[in-house]
Amino acid sequence: MDLETLKKLDNAFLFQNYGRQDLAFTHGRGEFLYDETGKEYLDMVAGIAVNSLGHSHPAMTATICDQASRLVHVSNLYRIKEQAELAEALVEVSPEGLDRALFVNSGAEANEAALKLAVRHTGRGKVIAVDNSFHGRTAAALKITAQSKYQEGFGCLMGEFADYVPLNDTESLKGAFDKDTAAMIIEPIQGEGGVRPCSEEFFRTARDLCDEKGALLISDEVQTGMGRTGEWFGFQHYGVVPDIISLAKGMGGGFPIGCILSSDDVSKTFSPGTHGTTFGGSPLASAVALAVIHVIESEGLVKSAAVKGEAMMNGLKKLIGDEVTEVRGAGLMIGMEMKTKAQALQGHALEKGVLINVCAGNVVRMVPPLNVSQSSLDKVSDIFNDFMEKI
Ligand SMILES: Cc1ncc(COP(=O)(O)O)c(C=O)c1O
Q1: 79: in domain
Q2: In sequence order, what are the residues at sequence separation of 6 or more whose Cβ sits closer than 8 angstroms to the Cβ of residue 21?
Q3: Which pTM value belongs to this model?
Q4: Residue 138 alpha carbon, nearest atom of ligand 1
Q5: Which residue range is the domain that position 340 belongs to?
Q6: Ligand 1, CB cutoff 6 Å, lining residues
Q7: Taking CA atoms, which of 81, 116, 138, 275 is between 20 and 30 Å from 160?
Q8: Cα–Cα dist 81/267, whole Å
Q9: 3 state SS of 66
Q10: What's the CATH number where 306 sits?
Q11: Burial of 14: CB neighbours in 10 Å, binned 0-12, 13-18, 19+
Q12: How far apart are the C-alpha atoms of 25 and 23, rounded to whole Å?
């Protein structure tokens, strides 16, 4: 189907709730996507930190075909081998204290589960979130998404359970906890908020205050998890372990799956019937996510994300000047803040066959597949250099 026909179909039948670019892809391989004319695009967006192994990775394709030919879905009324094996693999790559998994289907759902677990476990009703955060679009996840543009018009669906503190403001954090605080939720690096890293002091203070006040620390690893930042999980940059983490996005490499991990003790709060979901941890989704972990491990992608990301960021930092104000992130989660020309750079990159994403108004975000080649990253740097020279 040509692009014009697709646009007509989209405009006629789909909710118009996405600001879509006029681009459509027919297939992908590795870090490249292709449109119907055969044009190649280097994909530095990766479905927004989702396609962790790129497109059509042979291990994912083989697992999907093999598992789909045997068993796609059975209810969580029964024991599911693939789900149990995936839980074991996740616990194995996690530090002690993250000992059990509960599977869901998306990041928002993982955060809803994390919040329910925290309030039920503590018997308290308040949650502290960080200004400018993004935790998803379902009701409770939206309430802790501290950005009015997402919440506007939905107030009646959200409870009054959240307090917000500025990112990296340790003093405000100290004043925010009280006897009703069930949990604090933090993104180790804010993604949608503009690739803004949480400081070590802030994260560790949150850990200390949660311990002191009997609250739970939730690390939202939906975007930062599964090797993206050069560690398996973003919180590992801070040397402390949260009580609950939420995962989704890169976990299934493009196949929808999410989960929470917690300690054995905290997990016991969810007794049979207290929480669940029909599709969570289906044999197919679990088998694919397990294959993704195996590839990340066997190809050393966590370490390589750290090395490649650091080199790329060091290169981009040389562009800091009149237009580029800051380069930040960790591993292959990189943000380059610009004064006014982020959209123009996005257009320029597209002309050169590179997909990048602009978030939080003026931040160029790059979250490529973890197995992106060095030559592709060099190409992006060259294109950025070229753009800066032109303006
Ligand atoms: C940190 C974080 N948490 C939660 C979500 C929501 O995930 P989903 O869109 O899968 O519901 C996102 C999505 O961008 C995210 O970046």
Answers
A1: yes
A2: none
A3: 0.98
A4: 11
A5: 3-56+301-390
A6: 106-108, 111, 134-136, 187, 191-192, 220, 222-223, 248
A7: 275
A8: 20
A9: helix
A10: 3.90.1150.10
A11: exposed
A12: 7
